[in-house]
Amino acid sequence: TFVINVAGKPFPFKGWRKAYIPMNAENPQGNYFNTEDASVIVRTMLYINENRPEIKNIVIDDFQYLMAFEFVEKALRKDWEKWNEIAMHCMQVLNTGRKLRSDIKTFILAHSEDVEVGFGNVIKKIKTVGKMVDEKVELPGLFTVLLFTKTVWNDTAKKATYQFVTNQDNIYPAKSPFGMFKDIYIPNDLGYVAACIDEYENSSK
């Protein structure tokens, strides 16, 4: 697994620095890279595609900051062209992920946001910047598997349990092919998700 860290923040688990070693000119075999530049992300993905056959998963985290950081950088510009540029850079990364080797899975991690629909009804969606990506691209349509994180509070244990939602449940507009996952709620474990995808895609039935 190779991680592209857009926000550049430390990972939230113990010992991550030993598991993820930065890739650079001195260490081209690293499995971790910090950048918020869409063109650098694209070049990194293409490099992995062509030169790192052992890499089977590319994780981009957090994707919405790719748009947010560029928006802040161009905030003082009055022209509308900046929205076109933000959308174009977003799509360059996503389109690159679609064109990689067939044995590479690209995981796009992003925050969600609540959108009010109708009279007080709220749905979840991928957090974006501006309307162009939502209205002209329709991001969910680019993904075969779209999972949302659901947090369930256990009052007895006094802790939260985190799950992935695998299909529509009237709150989370998740989706996945029928039969790929055994349940609508699964552990929030990307390794488990990758294994389920492999089993589904390579099944003889």
General description of the model:
- With about 200 residues, the protein is of the alpha/beta class.
- It is about 30% helix and about 20% strand.
- It contains 6 helices and 9 strands; from the N terminus they run βαβαβααβββαβββα.
- It has helices at about 15-20, 40-50, 65-75, 80-100, 130-135, 190-200, and strands at about 1-5, 30-35, 55-60, 105-110, 110-115, 120-125, 150-155, 160-165, 185.
- The strands form 3 sheets. The protein has a 4-stranded parallel sheet with strand order 2-1-3-4, with no helix packed on it. Strands 7-8-9 form a 3-stranded antiparallel sheet, with no helix packed on it.
- Helix 1 links the parallel strand 1 and strand 2.
- Helix 2 (about 40-50) packs parallel to helix 4 and helix 3 runs antiparallel to helix 4 (about 80-100).
- The longest helix is centred in the middle third of the chain and has 18 residues, at about 80-100.
- It is globular and about 50 Å long.
- The two termini are about 30 Å apart.
Features:
alpha/beta, 205 residues, 31% helix, 3-stranded antiparallel β-sheet, single chain, 4-stranded parallel β-sheet
What's the layout of helices and strands?
Blueprint: E1 2-5, H1 16-19, E2 32-34, H2 38-51, E3 57-61, H3 64-73, H4 81-98, E4 105-108, E5 112-117, E6 121-126, H5 132-137, E7 148-154, E8 159-165, E9 185-187, H6 190-201
Parallel strand pairs: 1-2, 1-3, 3-4
Antiparallel strand pairs: 5-6, 7-8, 8-9
Helix pairs in contact: 2-4, 3-4
